[in-house]
Amino acid sequence: MERYWNEEIETMSREDMKKLQDERLVKQVRHVYDNVKYYRDLMDEKGVKPEDIKSTDDLCKLPFLSKSDLRDAYPYGLLAKPLSECVRIQSTSGTTGRRVVAFYTQNDIDLWEDCCARAITAAGGTNEDVCQVCYGYGLFTGGPGLNGGSHKVGCLTLPMSSGNTERQITFMRDLGSTILCCTPSYAAYIGETLHDMGFTTDDIKLKAGIFGAEPWTEEMRRSIEKSLGIKAYDIYGLTETSGPGVSFECSEQTGMHINEDHFIPEIINPDTGEVLPDGEVGELVFTSITKEAFPLLRYRTRDLCVLSRKKCSCGRTLIKMSKPKGRSDDMMIIRGVNVFPSQIETVLIEQGYSPNYLIEVDRVNNSDTLDVSVEMNPDQLSDKVKDMQQQERDLAAAIRLMIGISPKVHLVTPKSITRSEGKAVRVIDKRKLHD
Ligand code: DLL
Q1: Residues 175-229: pLDDT tens digits?
Q2: For residue 32, what are the CA distances in angstroms to 66, 196, 287, 294, 323?
C-alpha cells in the first residue's frame, strides 16, 4: 500500500493545488518585492508590479533569475529576511566565484525537511526504519536535508556522511540499516565493496535507496538494485531552492513528483525564455512560493527535462519531472561534485600550460573518471620519462586542489589538440544518459 507523508497535499485535486499556488505566489511576490532590492529592480526594469501578479497564470510576466544573478548579489543581495531571523546557510560544491550560498529561517528548514520526509515515505520509510545517510554533511545540502527528513519520519538515523566505505558496511550490518541515502555513484561503490568484503545481499537488511544529486541512468539503477538487493528511488533538488526534496520518486519509478505546494515548475526554451508546453524538453525553472529567507522567483536551473501530468499509479497528483537529461550550461557533475571547465582552465594557465586542453569524462564500472589532456609549451618538453610523469602528477595535484577530485593528466606534444574554428569543444562527456 502506498504511504504518504502529507496525503492531503500529495493527492490534492489539481484545482485545489492551483488555488493554493495562486494564493502563495501572490503573497510571495509581494514579500520579495518589498524586501529584495535586487529583484525589485529587475521587476521595475520590466515594468511589472506585485499587483500585476494575480495568479500562476501571470508567472510569465516575472523576470528570470539565473546563477549569474546569484553571483552578482553574493552574499546577501537576495536575502529577504533580516539576519536575526536566519538560522542556517548551505552552499554548493562549486569553488571560488561560483559558490552559491542559500539562507534558511527555521521555518524554511522545517519545510525543506518535510519535503525530504515525503521522499523517504514514498520510498517506504516509516519509524520502524534505520536510515543510513551517506551524503556529505556540512555545506552540502544532501546530508542535512535527508538527515532532517529521516528524523521527521522517525527513522533511526545514522548520520554517516560519505567515505570510509568499509565502515559504512560495518554499520549497515551491525545496526541493520534498511534505507540508504547517498549519490548513485557512491551507492554503486558501496555495493561493490560489500561484495569485495565477501558479503552478499543476505548479509544486509537494506530495502530501499534514495539516490540523487547527480545524473544516473536506468542501467545504473538496475545494477545498484541488484548489487544491494533494494529498490532504488531518485531524488532531485538544488541548493538554490533548498536542497534535496524539490522532487522525489514514488513506487512507479517513472519520474519525480515535484512538491508543487512549495515550488512551481515551468519548462522554458533555454535560448528564448519562451514557456514550453508539458511534454517538451526544456530548461526547468522554479519559483519557490514558501521560502522566507531566500525566495527565488523564476530561477533557471539549467537542468533540461520534461514535465508530465499523466496520472500516476501511486495516487499522487503532483506533477512529475523526468530525470534531468543534461544541463544547458557547462557545469559538469563528476562524482557528485560540480565542476566547471573554467576552473580547470584557470589551473592550467596558472601553472604555465597552454590553454589548449581537452577534458574527457567517462563512467567506468559505475564510477566517474576525469581525464585532462594538456598541451605542453615547447619549453616544457623533456625527454626524460620520469620528469614528464612528475609534471603530470604535479598538475593533477593542482587541479585536485581546485576542484576537489583527482583527474588523470596526460601531457601531450604542442599542437596535437585539434583547434576549433567555431566554439571550442573543451569537454567530451562519454557518460551515456538514457531516458
Ligand atoms: O545536489 C542537492 C541534492 C542533494 C539533490 C542530494 C539530491 C540529493 P547542488 O549541489 O546545488 O544540490 O546541485 C544541484 O545537481 O541542478 C542538477 O543538475 C543535479 N542534480 C540534483 N539531483 C539530481 C538528480 C544537490 N536526481 C544540481 N538527477 C541540479 C540528476 C541531479 N541531476
Answers
A1: 999 999 999 888 988 998 999 899 999 999 999 999 998 877 787 798 899 999 9
A2: 16, 53, 12, 9, 30
CATH 3.30.300.30 domain residues, the chain: 332-434
Which atom from ligand 1 is nearest to the alpha carbon of 243?
Answer: 2
Lowest mean pLDDT among 22-31, 252-261, 359-368: 359-368
323-349 pLDDT, tens digit per residue, is 886 676 667 889 888 887 778 888 887
Q: Would the CB of 98 count as within 6 Å of ligand 1?
A: no
Coil, strand or helix at 398: helix
Q: Give the pLDDT confidence of 94-138 residue by residue, as tens digits.
A: 544 557 899 999 999 999 999 999 999 999 999 999 999 999 999
Residue nearest to ligand 1 atom 10, measured at CA: 92
Among protein residues, the one whose CA lies closest to atom 21 of ligand 1: 213
Name the H helices within 2-127: 7-10, 14-35, 37-46, 67-72, 106-122
- Residue 78, ligand 1, Cβ within 6 A: no
Predicted pLDDT of residue 424: 59
Tell me what pLDDT residue 98 has.
58
Contact 271, 282 (CB under 8 A): no
Q: Enter the pTM of the model.
A: 0.82
> 155 Cβ partners below 8 Å, 6+ apart?
120, 125, 126, 127, 129, 130, 131, 179
Cell numbers found for residue 22? 495562486
| Model pLDDT for residues 237-247, shown as the tens digit of each residue | 999 999 999 99
Report the C-alpha gap between 307 and 272 in whole angstroms. Answer: 19
Determine if ligand 1 sits within 6 Å of the CB of residue 212: yes
Is the CB of 238 inside a 6 Å radius of any atom of ligand 1? yes
Q: Which CATH number fits domain 1-329: 3.30.70.120, 3.30.200.20, 3.40.50.12780, 3.90.1150.10?
A: 3.40.50.12780
* Residue 301 beta carbon below 6 angstroms from any ligand 1 atom: yes
Distance CA 288, CA 262 (A): 6
pLDDT confidence tier of residue 78, bands split at 50, 70 and 90 = very high
H-helix or E-strand containing 368? strand 367-375
Q: What dotted CATH number matches 332-434? A: 3.30.300.30
